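Holo prediction. Input below; ligand is iron/sulfur cluster.
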Amino acid sequence: MELETPSTFRDRPINIDESGQRKWIYARQPHGKWYTRRTIVAWLAITFLVFAPFIKISGNPLMLFDIANRKFSIFGQVIWAQDSFLLAMIMAVTVVFIVLFTVVYGRLWCGWACPQTLFLEMVFRRIEYLFDGNYRNFRRKQKITFRIIILRFAKHIVFLITSVLITNIFLNWFIGPERLYEIIKQPIKENYLGFIFMFGISLFYYWIYAFFREQVCTMICPYGRMQGVLLDSRSIAVIYDFKRGEPRGSKNTGDCINCQQCIAVCPTGIDIKNGSQLECINCTACIDECNSVMEKINKPQNLIRFDSVSGIESGKRSILNMRTYAYSAVLFVLIIAMAITISNRKPIETTILRVPGSIYQQVDSVTFSNLYIIKIINKTQSDKELRIKILNPESGKSQLTTGQSTLKSQGVLESILIVNLNRQVLTGKSTVVELGIFEGETLLEVYSTNFLGPMN
Ligand code: SF4
Ligand code: SF4
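Structure of the complex:
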């Protein structure tokens, strides 16, 4: 890769040339303590991604986003789509957390925990080092031979297999391992639509990791785009100590010898000496590389380091400012409110809707009946023996057509509910009916609906 001069880095993305063509970035594999730390964190994160849907807490998966059944299991707590208030709260807390975290720690997420970086840098890039060699001495610089063609072919086969595995890791998060295993066991012809879907997603991942690569971070990801408004001069980021490094060059007085090794390892190809840039994912590769250069020339380490612009200017780090306090206060209030909401959640969630198109039936000379569809979700960890009783008007009678009254933990009961009322208690064309859902003698929920009858 040709190095950018300082005057062109603001004119166009680093991986695009003057004619608008893509320039491939061949980053050298970094080595050093930050790379070791990042490798450990990355493999812990990948382990979590792989095993979270398998781990059970009180019978519920640690993580599951079962969109088809509108059921989400977050750290073993099952949340249904009906818990819309709770879901909105979780989303609000997540957004505020991301904003607060970014204000304080910059793009730490991008380099250390984002699945795109985890898989690209720690999985696909390593496969590439294996088949292609490392950076400028690798085989792509050599003449194309039969061996090189075989190696390239083998690399792309491994890329494709890895993409299929990654697709299945993510499918586990959405349909659960039991369902996925069932689908895998079935012959393809019995589930060819699912197979095409899975293979299509795998091809998409293959294209991302084999060809599109770092452009996800530098051109598409909206989180990267938000950095301009979220970061300030006190945000922590991977940063070049310009006070210490300048003027650079071997004959100058600054510590930077302008060796460009920090660019050679950068997965997005940028020169961090130009200051914080949208393309920097805070991966720390340049810190390690510059530290090894400093060691060789007997200069102090950390010419590139985690710091803030104001920290470099003033010589002392500062991560706490008014914005941090304000975001922390909002986050704290939201977390408390969320904890209270979860602990006070109703044990069951009932929905009663009139059977479409039905009005009322006359059972005998004094009794009228209405038909409803009843749905009860048991949100607790125990089975429940339920009883439905009409609380108001007291003389009313109700009956489930399925006769079912046992509701399994996290299960759903769906049935037709028949409500019978005496003509005397009807208050006109529409009468309000209050239904109580009981477990034993304990009233779990009261639900009101309208009972249609003849005009009196
Ligand atoms: S690796 Fe360090 S010394 Fe070399 S150019 Fe980068 S900042 Fe300067
Ligand atoms: S500038 Fe440094 S921290 Fe930023 S992406 Fe490049 S190598 Fe990683």
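Residues 1-345 form one domain. That is the main takeaway for now.
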